């Protein structure tokens, strides 16, 4: 049983990679689509927290069911990753998947999205990005380099 925690800024390839793994995908962004029909420009803090809480409940249910699961969020800080890890259970292998995709590539990938993330937000997230470390509680950390994932985005 595996819990995948991808780490990277928007457009770095996290969602593409997770879909290829065949695990159940839990996504805090999915609630925005469910509630708003898309991604509103402004989300009230209490609703943002509510979306994360619902995602953590979904994650907990998947873990209780013994399923491989990927938590599809940027998870750019160690604190956020700790929040996700606390839902793991004995027997689960916690795998960090780091996507150090160049900022300019991530910005370019936004052009093809229905709900693009602004360049300023991407640059801010890049500045706050903390590379995952094993002492956070990961059993394994994988690095998916941009060069290794180019075929995914050009097919």
**Count of spatially separate domains:** 1
Which H/E pattern describes the elements?
EHEHHEHEHHEH
How many helix segments? 7
Low-confidence stretches: 151-155
| Physical arrangement of strands within the biggest beta sheet | 2-3-1-4-5
**End-to-end span in angstroms?**
30 Å
Give the CATH topology: Rossmann fold
Q: Output the CATH homologous superfamily.
A: P-loop containing nucleotide triphosphate hydrolases
* Strand content range: 5-15%
- Main sheet makeup: 5 strands, parallel
Overall structural class, as computed from helix and strand content, comes to alpha/beta
Give a count of the beta strands, DSSP E runs of length 2 or more: 5
Q: What CATH architecture would you give? A: 3-Layer(aba) Sandwich
Helix content: 40-55%
CATH class: Alpha Beta
Radius of gyration computed on alpha carbons: 15 Å
Mean pLDDT figure: 88
Shape: globular
Give the topology.
Layout: E1 2-7, H1 14-21, E2 24-26, H2 28-36, H3 45-64, E3 69-71, H4 78-85, E4 93-98, H5 103-110, H6 119-128, E5 140-143, H7 146-154
Parallel strand pairs: 1-3, 1-4, 2-3, 4-5
Helix pairs in contact: 2-3
